[in-house]
Design brief:
elongated; 2 domains; two-stranded antiparallel sheet; 122 residues; 4 helices; 2 strands; 66% helix; mainly alpha
Length: 122
């Protein structure tokens, strides 16, 4: 809808290239222009958020690959610390498959970040 109105505004300017017609200065056009500017700002913010999410995802993938590469060298206590830092629990029963629960938190505490960074360098 916004683009349709902008197209109509463009037609008005094309029809009257040397002067502004009374339709061009109408409150409806001003409201449309304001709405279009707000929509463009919203879309720019959304694009910025998407770019940031892509960056965070790439960073997380990189971190996971580094931890995976170092996992064999970690002691049992270090592995337990890594799982706790990621809020992951693992339950083992002799006659059942492993139960793995958890999710990576979006906001990490300072100590969790320090632990994660230490494990990634390890």
């Amino acid at each position: 809808m916004v683009f349709d109105v902008l197209f109509e505004i463009g037609e008005v300017f094309d029809a009257h290239p040397d002067s502004m017609c009374h339709r061009c200065a109408s409150p409806e056009v001003d409201a449309c222009r304001t709405g279009a500017e707000q929509e463009l700002a919203r879309l720019a913010d959304q694009q910025h958020a998407l770019n940031h999410a892509v960056y965070e995802m790439a960073s997380l993938k990189d971190y996971c690959f580094r931890v995976q590469a170092n996992l064999q060298a970690l002691s049992m206590d270090e592995k337990r610390l890594a799982l706790e830092s990621l809020h992951i629990t693992v339950v083992w029963h002799p006659d059942k498959p492993l139960e793995i629960h958890g999710s990576i938190p979006r906001a990490c505490e300072h100590s969790t970040l320090g632990c994660a960074a230490n494990l990634a360098r390890h």
